[in-house]
Write a structure and sequence with these properties.
Helix content: 40-55%
Shape: globular
Order of helices and strands: EHHEHEHEHHEEHH
Mean pLDDT: 96
Bound molecules: farnesyl diphosphate
Radius of gyration: 19 Å
Strand order of the largest sheet: 3-4-2-1-5-6
Number of helices: 8
CATH superfamily: Decaprenyl diphosphate synthase-like
CATH class: Alpha Beta
Largest sheet: 6 strands, parallel
Number of domains: 1
Distance between the termini: 29 Å
Strand content: 5-15%
Number of strands: 6
CATH architecture: 3-Layer(aba) Sandwich
Structural class: alpha/beta
Length: about 240
């Protein structure tokens, strides 16, 4: 690694919106699915790079709840890629002590992907160097709606008093209940929006947008992003003097 990072300032939780696979393929005169296939290599590099510098949680936006409305062939390819990659990368996750988790409406995934996912999640459950959290069929607003429903049920059943509902209560009912807040959000491909990703969890995250298309995102691109993160001053509403 050529980078000298401040080991005290490594973001605990990094979240990435992996965008630009389709445009990458188009630039090469290929079909969109070619971009997704090449995106898998970028996923691999990013996982390695994050684990190497001591990131504790890496959440990747692999498939949004809105992505279901893409052409069927593209959706099918993404689902097969997911199942195949999980199968292929399982050994490397074990070797690197990485725990797999997933958030989203996982029941809507095809059986093959679901089973593969369950198996790897189960087998890697005791790994603890880094958590790799895949957002699959994920939508943040639906996540919040579901949280509101479960909290309301508890109120109706007298398990919870309205006056005791606080930020922690909401947090504890999200898919990410056991994870720390996001410190750093990266989006590739030049788009500058959040696209219904971790709306609650990014409240104080630093945002980083790069023009690099996802299949071109290599370890060094990840390190460049981390260097930028380390230059930011996270004030959480306070003044610069207060946090020094
Ligand atoms: C966005 O590019 C990318 C996706 C919707 C899918 C991301 C999936 C992978 C990188 C491969 C499989 C993942 C795992 C975890 C093995 P886009 O299609 O929106 O690109 P565009 O904006 O240029 O059209």
């Amino acid at each position: 690694m050529n980078n000298n990072f401040d080991t005290q300032k490594i973001p605990n939780h990094v979240a990435i919106i992996m965008d630009g696979n389709g445009r990458w393929a188009k630039q090469k005169g290929r079909l969109r699915v070619f971009g997704h296939k090449n995106g898998v290599q970028a996923v691999r590099e990013t996982i390695e790079a994050a684990a190497e510098i001591g990131v504790k949680v890496l959440t990747l936006y692999a498939f949004s709840s809105e992505n279901w409305s893409r052409p069927k062939k593209e959706v099918d390819t993404l689902m097969s890629l997911l199942a195949a990659s999980l199968k292929k990368e399982f050994k490397s996750l074990q070797k690197n002590d990485i725990q797999l988790r997933a958030i989203g409406d996982l029941q809507s995934l095809p059986n093959k992907a679901q089973n593969q996912l369950k198996e790897v999640i189960k087998k890697t459950a005791s790994n603890n160097r880094m958590i790799l959290n895949l957002a699959l069929s994920y939508g943040s607003r639906t996540e919040i709606v579901n949280a509101v429903k479960s909290i309301s049920k508890k109120v109706v059943n007298n398990e919870l008093k309205i006056e005791n509902i606080d930020k922690k209560t909401i947090n504890n009912h999200l898919y990410t209940f056991s994870l720390p807040d996001v410190d750093f959000l990266i989006r590739t491909s030049g788009e500058q929006r959040i696209s219904n990703f971790l709306l609650w969890q990014i409240a104080y995250a630093e945002l980083y947008f790069t023009k690099t298309l996802w299949p071109d995102f290599k370890k060094q691109n990840f390190y460049d992003a981390i260097s930028e993160y380390q230059k930011r001053e996270r004030r959480y509403g306070k003044t610069s003097e207060q946090i020094k």
